[in-house]
Design a protein that fits this description.
Blueprint lengths: L4 E4 L3 H8 L9 H6 L4 E6 L5 E8 L11 E9 L2 H17 L4 E4 L11 E2 L18 H6 L4 E11 L7 H12 L2 E5 L5 H15 L11 H8 L12 E5 L2 E10 L1 H5 L6 E9 L8 H15 L4 E8 L3 H8 L3 E12 L1
Parallel strand pairs: 4-5, 11-12
Antiparallel strand pairs: 1-2, 2-3, 3-4, 5-13, 6-13, 7-12, 7-13, 8-9, 9-10, 10-11
Helix pairs in contact: 5-9, 6-7
Length: 333
């Protein structure tokens, strides 16, 4: 007999318990609704205290060449026993819906929160970095999940040196009609629209990619508006047409710890597929770091890069140091 009760969320009261359990990380109720999961599950003690929770997606999910994917997200568990009950129930339902592979943790798609920190290390967490208890990866592996995708974050202290090779790249691109400019904060809505269109084009071939609406994209970036430093978000253009961008933010968690903010987080680098030759991505990273150095930042974190992506190769060329590793898990159903 299972030590806890496994309950499918069907009422508003249960959904509130799902989002705001006293012993698990809180979720925003409106955000959970916007994510439009196909099912929510709670694992609870007989007295009602929530021990684990998770949401499932199977009707609108990323594609995979070898499997029909089902997603497990909004994951949290107080202990391994509760996590096991939640994951086993999730896999049963996903299999019943015709899925052949369960993937998690992922809140529906890769635009949203996904992956787990594998080893916390000694470096403190940075702004917008996923955080989880050290035992959560084991919840997945003990239930037959293996690592599907790996990611890492790296830190670079070489902020102001524009390598001679990139100086030549810059001169060549300028001669061809390319330019790089900072974000225009007085036209933020239009600028975010440009970032959205570039993101759809640039990330379309990424692993487990799934497009989202412009409304959701805007809703993701709206909370970050007060923290945007326009000089750290750069757009590459060809005759006025956007061809790439880099989006970076100060590490606000440093201030919350009482430290001076000396770190910039490079969150996204995107180049339109039609313009991926010529070093635009490398130049955007170098220009962003160079500008950050002039603004007084001492280091840059290249955040949450999928193994094999071009951004990781650019980061390693910058002689960056590995900061942390993460993983996304899967299980054949």
């Amino acid at each position: 007999m299972a030590p806890y009760q496994t309950v499918q969320v069907r009422t508003e009261e249960q959904l509130n318990d799902f989002c705001q359990p006293p012993t698990l990380p809180a979720l925003d109720l409106g955000t959970v609704r916007r994510h439009e999961a196909d099912a929510h599950w709670l694992v609870a003690e007989p007295g009602g205290a929530v021990v684990a929770r998770g949401s499932l997606w199977w009707s609108q999910v990323p594609t995979h060449p070898l499997a029909r994917v089902g997603i497990i997200g909004h994951y949290a568990a107080r202990n391994a026993v509760g996590g096991t009950q939640l994951l086993q129930q999730a896999c049963r339902q996903l299999a019943g819906e015709g899925c052949t592979m369960a993937v998690g943790p992922m809140d529906g798609n890769t635009w949203r929160s996904h992956r787990l920190v594998l080893e916390p290390g000694t470096d403190p967490a940075f702004f917008l970095e996923p955080q989880n208890p050290a035992d959560w990866p084991g919840h997945f592996t003990r239930n037959g999940f293996t690592i599907l995708a790996r990611y890492d974050s790296r830190v670079n202290h070489n902020m102001q040196e524009l390598l001679p090779s990139l100086d030549r790249v810059n001169n060549r691109l300028v001669r061809r009609g390319f330019s790089i400019r900072p974000l225009r904060p007085n036209h933020l809505e239009q600028e975010l629209h440009r970032l959205f269109e570039l993101s759809l084009a640039s990330f379309g071939q990424n692993f487990l990619y799934m497009p989202i609406s412009q409304a959701e994209f805007m809703a993701m970036y709206a909370p970050l508006e007060p923290y945007i430093v326009p000089e750290l978000t750069l757009l590459a253009e060809y005759d006025g047409v956007p061809t790439g961008f880099i989006f970076a933010l100060p590490d606000l968690l440093q201030a919350r710890r009482g430290d001076a903010i000396d770190t910039v987080i490079i969150k996204s680098v995107a180049v339109h597929p039609a313009y991926r030759v010529g070093g635009i991505g490398s130049l955007l990273v170098a220009r962003c770091q160079e500008t950050a150095g002039r603004l007084g930042y001492r280091r840059a974190i290249h955040a949450l890069m999928h193994d094999g992506n071009t951004s990781g190769k650019i980061s390693r060329r910058n002689q960056s140091r590995l900061l942390r590793r993460y993983a996304l898990f899967s299980k054949t159903l």
